[in-house]
């Protein structure tokens, strides 16, 4: 079960996570989602925290090399990129699969009137 | 500013940012493969309700309670008035503030895409995204309120607001009794997210621990 205890342990294992006295803080809702998925995969044993920290630092270096200002505002963008890459490296889902689902969600948005629940349908994969 | 915003084009479909699309893609794939349980993710995320976004809404409400001139500006044109407390940005644009009174209670349904004004309201509640909530809020608002522990007098009218591509709503809850002379900071502690969506009331002084 993922819980706040697990979240607190994660902030100990990955010291760069933005936090306050109680634990991690997020600028936007999607950041919390990305964080929660990472926690869940860790709990499932898909990767260890040292593996995660390495993957994240690789992404951060890559971004810095590409001119990322490294102000902290982009932290969770690097986090998301690291998560995608690690998921692919661990054979959970390939980058191609992730791209296909991303496009499907994009199609789902396009056909969903504003304010309606956005749901994936088979024909969004086209 | 608002006139060149892309929401003002006449497409009325939903929008997600590139990042949100990627996050959804990951969540869907991981769920289908059995690696994550969306309900468990939601439970964890809910525990961070107060840790997401700047939650400027509480400050806006507290200021409106304490400062009648600000309140008037806020109700007249929400967007610049909210900008005064320091927030101006994409998701917060075009915010209309609707005021609760003894005669009328306002409640907001939606939104399910990137238009949810999280910089003002904070993290959207999990139940808010669900289709049953949405449809019941429209057909039986009093029943939904009751589920949230809010019982209003029978003669209080309930208005349900559905955000559009261009307008999002912020509910200005009623100021609780017994808070005369309170500072804005102290008042802000009474303002919950649910009170700004209209599925709750502001806390009373005795609710503060």
Would you kindly provide a written description of the structure presented here, covering whatever features stand out?
Chain A is mainly alpha-helical and 126 residues long. Chain A has 2 domains: 4-90, no CATH class; 94-126, no CATH class. Chain A is built from 5 helices and 2 strands. Chain A has helices at 4-13, 29-43, 49-65, 75-89, 95-111; strands at residues 19-20, 23-24. In chain A, helix 3 (49-65) packs across helix 4. The longest helix of chain A is centred in the middle third of the chain and has 17 residues, at 49-65. The model of chain A has no long low-confidence stretch (mean pLDDT 88). With 209 residues, chain B is an alpha/beta fold. Chain B folds into 2 domains: 15-47, no CATH class; 53-207, Nitrile Hydratase, Chain A (Alpha-Beta Complex), CATH 3.90.330.10. Chain B is 39% helix and 11% strand. In chain B, strands 1-4 form a two-stranded parallel sheet. A two-stranded parallel ribbon of chain B has the order 2-3. The longest helix of chain B is centred in the first third of the chain and has 15 residues, at 18-32. Residues 1-11 of chain B have low confidence and may be disordered. At the A-B interface, strand 2, helix 2, helix 4 and helix 5 of A face helix 1 and helix 2 of B.
Key descriptive features of the protein:
heterodimer; A: 126 residues; mainly alpha; 5 helices; 2 strands; B: 209 residues; alpha/beta; Nitrile Hydratase, Chain A; 2 domains; 10 helices; 4 strands; disordered N terminus
Task: Give me a quick take on this structure.
Chain A is mainly α. Chain A contains five helices and two strands, in the order H-E-E-H-H-H-H.
Strand and helix layout:
The complex is a heterodimer of chains A (126) and B (209).
Chain A lengths: L3 H10 L5 E2 L2 E2 L4 H15 L5 H17 L9 H15 L5 H17 L15
Antiparallel strand pairs in A: 1-2
Helix pairs in contact in A: 2-4, 3-4
Chain B lengths: L17 H15 L5 H9 L9 H11 L1 H9 L1 H7 L10 E5 L4 E6 L8 H4 L9 H9 L1 H7 L9 E6 L5 E5 L11 H5 L4 H5 L12
Parallel strand pairs in B: 1-4, 2-3
